[in-house]
Amino acid sequence: MDYSRTELMPGVWLTHLHSDKFKTACLSLNLLAQLKRDSASMNALIPYVLRRGTVQYGDMEAISARLDELYGVAIEPVVRRIGEIQCFGFYSSIPEDDFLPDGEKVLRDSCSLMAEMLIAPATRGGLFLPQYVDSEKEKLLQIIRGRINNKEGYAVSRCVEEMCCYEDFAVSAIGSEIECEDIHYRRLTKHYHAMLQSCPIEIFYCGRSPKNTVVSALTDALMPLPRGDIDYDIGTDVRMNSLEEKPRYVEEVLDVGQGKLCMGFRLGECMEEPDVAAINVFSAVFGGGTSSKLFANVREKLSLCYYASSAVNIAKGIMLVASGIEFKNFDRAKTEILAQLDAIRAGDISDEELNAAKSGVASDLRSFMDSKGELEGFYLTRALQGEDYSPTDMALLVDEVTKEQVVKIAQSVECDLIYFLKGTEDEEDAEP
Length: 432
Fold this sequence. Notes:
Number of helices: 15
């Protein structure tokens, strides 16, 4: 796959990945903003409101009809956070010209439609249509309120909120219920225009079309894009150490029959010059699969957890351990999870554990080459971090990670917060 990056216009960058592997191309357009409590919900709402209608295609029915004319092109809103940068915009899947009848070509028209959604939304008197804003706001509120229904995900998000309570990372990618409820169509319109002029924009394309064809189609489509002073002052505050000398403890009681123990760690001094390959292998050795220490010992050998796994967020420099336990096993499970980390710090890593971890991480990375969606997320993250290696490049680095590198990272890690979601002992029949 041939990779390149091009600045199409001030603050608008295209990552082009040429590939003949897929029958559909993917094209994403992401506005980038600092993740903030008072604007996260507005930013998250913008692409959903924009999708409701444009100047030329006034409602979703008209947009759907146009997508059908383009042989089933799909354009969907997308909102996420990478570190403390909020990314919001559109992700599209576009049939490749080689598989269309009669020499049809839809890339240019697809770019035009996506650009029209972004730049020329349906308005009245220059303002978003109140019914579109109110409808999409209610849907977003339902998503925000519904997060508590997934207790595992809820516990992880609460752990992050408490651990990073003084940092932007505590804010969800879609914001909070309070901020979302306060959105008004006039306020959202004003905010949208400000974002359109100031946000850096990252565009990703993966498909068969040559770079010059994609550049031409996007440059023409985005020509009306209003640009002012671009806000390049966005990024992620990576805190090396835990907030206090001892891990903080937060307990929450809900109607659950299974306890959720989440532990938040700072990756520490290894984040000064992060070795991404080694950090991922360390997490895999600790809690990344069936050969990991958490699975083999805490879950299987000691039967202290229904599940136990670790995941690193290198953009933010943190690691989260998530586990499901019986309420009475809280102290033992917490102690044993920390003991497994201490074992890695002491160099207690077998060749089998290390090789299995490296094999799993490298295999996951190589599998990215078979998924446009994974490639899009991978390269967007790399672009925000100023790096340009491929999944295959990273997999080769993973193959070279040594036991000593893993031990050094483990010795850098600090436990910052312990979160426990529990119920009462007689809630055996409650929702897990």
